[in-house]
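Annotated sample (chain length 143).
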Amino acid sequence: MTVSAHYAESGLTDLMDRAELLLGQRRHAAQWWVDLVACLDAMGARLSSMRQEPAVRDSLAEQIRIDAPHLFSNLRRLEEESEALQEDILRVRIFAGESAADDGTFSDLAAAVRGVLRRMRKLEKRSNSVVLDAYDTDIGGDA
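Output written by the structure step:
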């Protein structure tokens, strides 16, 4: 399973799309702020649960360590980036909660949310690349 398939299966892709949609909508109603905070909370929780799946994470890491050791450092970097991203989601979520209904902070909040979404998509793409490189080139399995 590719990382993109895993994102979709976990609902993370839908949440990222939902956050983008919310940024394009009217933000004057209190419910908009509640929806955005709930979306950020859910994104953080889903990313955390994906990172916590030891069977998938550890078996992939072990297989790459053995069969494609040159990619192992890339896998570790991705894990570190994922952890930092999770911290940033929490930071942006707190900012959203603190600035609720303050239209003066919207542009800063929107930029922060879009930055998190860009990083999530970049992490997804780079993770797919490592997995596909490992399977296509070194391990020889089906990606």
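Annotation: The CA atoms of residues 99 and 106 lie 8 Å apart.
Annotation: The mean pLDDT is 80.
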